[in-house]
Design goal:
This protein is of the alpha+beta class and 113 residues long. The chain contains two helices and five strands. A five-stranded mixed sheet has the order 3-4-2-1-5, covered by helices on one side. Helix 1 runs antiparallel to helix 2.
Length: 113
């Protein structure tokens, strides 16, 4: 089972994304659920890393692990991050909706004191 955890800031912007596990929906190297989640996560990392005004940390960890942490530093960057975060969550939710036995998505809002 792949577990995707998305953490949004108080304004609803993507703050963190953590992916862990293996889908088990196909053979090693041929699992479409793993491939879909991996492509979404890596595309988000590449897209956000190349955007001025957005600080990005993370990437693939060990096998079956990926993390992404973001910080938008300008208004234009926040707008871009909002769109990219929405696209990423829609993609993850689409995969989880089609393969609920192999992928779950949890979306949380960060609480600041």
């Amino acid at each position: 089972m792949i577990q995707v955890r998305v953490i949004l800031d108080g304004a609803g912007l993507l703050r963190r994304c953590e992916v862990q596990g293996h889908a088990g929906a196909g053979p090693k190297g041929g699992d479409i659920v793993c491939a879909a989640v991996s492509v979404l996560a890596r595309a988000a990392l590449a897209t956000l890393s190349g955007r001025e005004g957005i600080l990005v940390r993370g990437g693939p960890g060990g096998r079956g692990e990926f993390s992404l942490e973001t910080e938008a530093r300008t208004g234009e960057a926040r707008t871009f991050l909002a769109a990219a975060g929405t696209f990423l969550m829609e993609g993850f939710n689409s995969v989880a909706g089609e393969f609920p036995k192999n992928c779950t998505v949890t979306i949380q809002t960060e609480r600041r004191n």
